[in-house]
Amino acid sequence: MFDGFHLTLLAGPVVPLPTPKIAIDALQSVKVISSATAESGFELVFSFSSDSPLNTIFLLAGAQTPLLRVVVVATINAVPTVLMDGVMTNHQYQPGAAGAVSTLTIQGKDLTKVMALQDFSGLPYPAMPIEARVALIVAKYAMFGLIPLVIPSLFTDVPVPVDRIPTHEGTDLQYIQSLARDVGHVFYIEPGPLPGANVAYFGPPIKIGVPQPALNINMDAHTNVQSLNFRFETGETSLPVVFIQNPITRIPIPLPIPRLNPLQPPLGVLPAPITNITVLHDTARLSPPAALSRGVAAAARSQDAVSGSGSLDVLRYGRALRARQLVGVRGAGLAFDGLYYVDQVTTTIKPGEFKQDFNLSRNGIVSITPVVPA
Question: How many domains is the chain partitioned into structurally?
Answer without folding.
Answer: 4
